[in-house]
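WARN retry 2 of 3 for item q-0093 after timeout on previous attempt; input resubmitted unchanged.
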Amino acid sequence: MDRIIEYVDATNDILWSYVVVAMMVVCAVYFTVRSRGVQFTLLRDMLKIVVDKPIFRHLPPNVQHREQAAEDQLKKIGSFQAFTVSLSSRVGTGNLAGVASAIFVGGPGAVFWMWVMALLCAATAFVESTLAQLYKRRGKDSFYGGPAYYMEYGLHRRWMGLLFAVLITLTFGMANQVIQSNTLCDAVSDAFGFDRMWIGVAITIATLFIIFGGIRRISHFVGVCVPFMALGYIALSVFVLLVNFTEIPAMFQLIVRSAFGMEQAVGGAFGVAVMQGVKRGLFSNEAGEGSAPNAAAIATTSHPVKQGLLQSLGVFADTIVICTCTAFVILLSGLYDAGSDGIILTKHAFESHVGAAGGYFITIAIFLFAYSTIIGNYFYGETNVRFLSGGSRAWVVTFRLITGAVVMAGALVTLQTAWSFADLAMGAMTLVNLLAIIQLSPQVFTLLRDYREQRCSGHDPHFCKTSLPPHIARDVECWE
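OK item q-0093 returned
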C-alpha cells in the first residue's frame, strides 16, 4: 500500500503542479475574454439575483404564463438556496487552513495571486453553471443536473458523463467526507476533550437526519447555516481590521512587494508565491472542477445566465471575501513566518488579536465550515448517483447509508490515504469537466448574448429554448 501511495502522490504532484493548473488558467483567461468580462460587467446583476430581485420589472411578451406553469410543476428552490448549497461545499476548512498554508509556503505575495485567480476563475464558474441550468432535468420535487448531464445531453457522450459521475462521487461523496469529518472531530476533541468516537456518532446521526430529508431539507439547512457562519467569520475579521486599522496600508504594501518578488532574497521565491497563490485560489473556489454546477442546476430561475452569474458571485464570496479575511488576520498578527502552518497558524493569529476566545472561535468555525461541507458534498454525490443509476431510489438510499458510514469512519482513521486518492480523483474530474465546457462554451456565449439583448431592451431576461438552433433545443428538457 505504501508503494501505491507513493505513485499516487507522484502523479498528483505532476497533475496539480502543471497539467490541471495550466489548463484552468488558460480556460479562465479564455472565458473572461470571450464573455467580455462577464464577472465584472454584470456584477450589479449578480447582487440583485442573490436577493431574488428582478433585473427589470418588465417581463418580455408571452412569458408570464410560462413562468407560472413552471412553478406549478415543481416545488420551487430559489436561486439563493442553490447558491448556498454550492457555497457550503466551497467554504470549508480550506478557507481557514489552506490559506494559512499558502502564506506559510509562498509568503504574503501568495494572497495577491489568489485574488488574481479568483477574479479570472469567476468566468469559468459562470460557464459551467450556465450549462448546468441549460441542460437540467425535471425531478419529482426539484430540478437536477450538472456536468454528467451536459456531457450526455450536450456533447452526446454518455461515457464521459459516467466517468465524471464516478470520479465526483468518489471525491466529494466519499474521500472528502472522510477528510472533513476527521478535521471536525480533531478540532472539537482538541478544544473540549470529547471522545472522537462519540463526536463521530453525533455528526453521523445529524448528517443522516438532514440528507434523508432530501434536497429541500438540505437546501433549507445550508440556507441558514452558511450565511450564519460566513457572516460571523467576516464580522470577527472586520473587528480585527478595525483594531489594526493603522497597519493596513503596510500590510497591502507587504502583499504587493512579496507578490512580485521584491522582498525575497532567493530568486525562486517569486515563483513559489505565484504557484501557491494560484493553487490556493483554484482549490478554494472550485471553479472548473464541476462540483458547483450540480447545485446550480436545482434552482428555479427565469434564465440560465442568472444562475451562472450567481455561481460566479460564489467565487468572489469564497476567495475575495472569506479567504481574504483569513489572510488579513494572519498577516496583521505578524506570525506568518513564525513556524506554524495550516489551521494552527490561523488559530494562533486569532488568539494574538482577541486572546483565548480566538481559539474557541476557530474551533466553532471549523465545526460549522466542515459540517456544512459534508452536507454540500453529499448532495454532489447524490446527484451523480442518480445519474449512474437512472434515478433509482434504492441506490440513493444505499448511498445515504454509505455516507453515514464514511462520516463515522472519518472520526477514527488517518488522512494520508484519503487525501492522496481525493486529489487524484479531483484532478481527473477537473480535466474531464474542462474539456466538456470548452466544447460547449459557444452555447453559453449565445445565451449570454440573448440575456444582454433582453437586458438592453429594458426587460427582465427570460429564456425559451425555441431561441436555440433545433439541433441543440431538442436535447434541452426544460425552458419551454
